[in-house]
Amino acid sequence: MSIMVNSSKTPTGKAKKGQVTVRVDSGSVKACFPRPHFPGEPSQVKIATGISNVDGWQAEADKLKRRLQLETEEGKLSLPGGKFNRKRYFEILVEYKLKPDLKIVESAVISDGQLPPKPELSVMEIWDIYCSFRRESLSETVYQLKFKGEYLRAIKKSADEVGEHPLEMRNWLLGNYSHSTVKRILSCLAEAYRLAVKQKMVGQNLFDGMSEDINAKGKRNRIIDQSKEIESDDDVLDKSKAYTWNEAQEILKYIQDDSNRVKHYYNLIKFKFLTGCRTGEAIALWWCDIEWERERILLRRNYNNRLKIYKSTKNDTVRMFPMPGDGELWNLLKSISQGEPNENIFKNKAGKPINADSLQRVWHGYEASRNKGIIPELIKQGKVKKYLPCYNTRHTFITHQIFDLGRDAAIVNTWCEHSEEMSKKHYRDIEKYATQINPELPANQQVKQQSELDALKEQLRKQQETIDKLLEEKG
After folding, report:
1. How far is residue 103's CA from residue 107's CA, in Å, rounded to a whole number?
2. 178-201 b/e with 16+ CB inside 10 Å = b?
3. Are strands 46-48 and 78-79 parallel, antiparallel or unpaired?
4. Cα dihedral sign, 188-189-195-198
5. Which residue, of 382, 408, 421, 428, is most buried by count of CB atoms within 10 Å of its CB?
6. Angle formed at CA 158 by CA 156 and CA 163, multiple of 5 degrees
7. Residue 336: what pLDDT?
8. Which residues, listed in sequence order, are joined to residue 83 by a DSSP beta bridge?
């Protein structure tokens, strides 16, 4: 008779409220914690235990479950703000010999300086330890999507195909992933093994130098859908990566046409063209972010479609974008039926927040649903010259402001934060002035405003010189 691990389950199979369970989830044995205990986490905490999913795992899992339940009830696994205490959790796993101890000291080394005999750790185990080590230094999206997502899958696939032989793994990865991705994975593996060597877990760094001669601009996978396109600000000032403003108007005309059945995306796409904000920032916009009296918009959060979580903007700032009364942007938002303060502004036909993946499919086409795509159709009609991702509405706004309207690049950067380095240098000192600029007018129509500002600065400078001179004479 098999041992029942999750004895706290009800006859329906669900765990009682507040009960920790240890069960097989996505092929591995995980500890699953009740949501009410950790309200600060974006989703239910499900975390690997290190227990192998083989016959007899239930007995070991039952012991761990009882300990975790006790620790949870006593609040030892909780951190301020309702966060899960991962450090304490891993201490418990070490105590139960389910994880190697990261705090191995020199006394663990035998007298001749050699490592004490112990089982060799696998590449996957080293990676798991490394991810735990890096967890607090990474954003939740990077940790989940890259380290525990894309990178983990690639490492596991290569190990399954060629075994845990570093050189063979490297060659397999190069044959199946872009060079930039492989370079990053191998760099992380080398760092993971450096940590393991330092902590006396393994004897040598098997991935040392593996990434050094890889050209990051080498082979790339062919993009088959926009979900694989990288949203990057590295080239926002490259005109070739932006639509012309005339092309932008053609795109909006096509979307607004009822016969194309994509009209419900019009408001979001136009907002992106008029503000240059990132897709996640537009989707995350709530009605409380619109300050009608002050004629401005606050961009203060981003939405990650894959993890279904809201987070701060890329550079952790609250940006203020000017919205002149009765201007194009003002009238666009006024045309939308206003909802509750914390309600999303841009919605789909079902009245729910727009899904970024659905937007991507509509933009570039999706053969499975016979969706021809906005841009491919416009290219056929000769109204758009080439395909660019939906994210490049941002590039279009920035290049239009700087190259077409003659806007100062520092002003545009304050609106969009397209350069983290430039943002940190210029953001605060020009923020107040930037929010007084009308983004819908060419710069030459605001010369008078700039001249008045320069005159005021000159007046203040002369006043300061007079004060300094008087102080010198008095002294």
Report:
1. 11
2. bbbbbbbbbebbbebbebbbebbb
3. unpaired
4. negative
5. 408
6. 95
7. 94
8. 79
Please report, for residues 31, 382, 395, the alpha-carbon distance to residue 378 in angstroms, rounded to integers and kept in the order given: 51, 6, 19
Q: How confident is the model at residue 9 (pLDDT cuts 50, 70, 90)?
A: very low
Structure tokens at 30: 């995980």
432, 320 Cβ separation under 8 angstroms: no
**Are 3 and 59 spatial neighbours (Cβ–Cβ below 8 Å)?**
yes
CATH superfamily placement of domain 233-441: Intergrase catalytic core (1.10.443.10)
Average pLDDT over residues 36-55: 82
CA–CA distance, 378 with 380 (Å, rounded to integer): 5
Model confidence pLDDT, tens digit, residues 287-331: 999 999 999 999 988 888 777 788 877 777 888 999 999 899 999
Would you kindly state where each structural domain of the chain is located, as residue ranges?
1-99, 119-221, 233-441, 445-475
The set of residues, in sequence order, having a beta carbon less than 8 Å from that of 456 and lying 6+ positions away, is none
What tokens does 107 get? 């006394």
- In order of 34, 100, 118, 139, 357, the CA distances from 92 in angstroms are 18, 11, 20, 25, 39
Mean pLDDT of 100-127: 56
pLDDT of residue 6: 41
What CA–CA distance (Å, rounded) separates 47 from 73? 18
Q: For residue range 170-204, list pLDDT tens digits in order.
A: 888 888 888 888 999 999 999 999 988 888 888 88
Overall residue count recorded for the chain in this entry: 475
Range 119-221 classified under CATH 1.10.150: yes
Q: 437, 447, 393, 448: which is closest to 415 by C-alpha?
A: 437
42 burial class (0-12, 13-18, 19+ CB within 10 angstroms)? middle
The whole-model pTM stands at 0.53
Angle (CA) 456-459-463 rounded to 5° is 140
Would you say 395 and 247 are in contact if contact means Cβ atoms under 8 Å apart? no
Contacts of 423 (CB under 8 A, 6+ apart): 315, 317, 413, 414, 417
**Helix spans in 209-301 (H):** 245-256, 266-275, 279-283
Sign of CA dihedral 176, 177, 182, 183: positive
Q: Which two tokens stand for residue 238?
A: 């490259």
Give the single-character DSSP code of 37. Answer: G
Is beta strand 78-79 parallel, antiparallel or unpaired with respect to 309-311? Answer: unpaired
- Element (DSSP H or E) covering residue 380: helix 374-380
Instruction: Please say whether the beta carbons of 243 and 384 come within 8 A.
Output: yes
Q: Which pair of structure tokens corresponds to residue 18?
A: 């507040």
Token code pair at residue 276: 């240059």
**What are the CB-based long-range contacts (under 8 Å, 24+) for 109-114?**
109/200
Q: d(Cα 271, Cα 282) in Å, to the nearest integer?
A: 8
Q: Which residue has the tokens 């941002």?
A: 394
**Alpha helices per DSSP H over 74-120:** 86-95
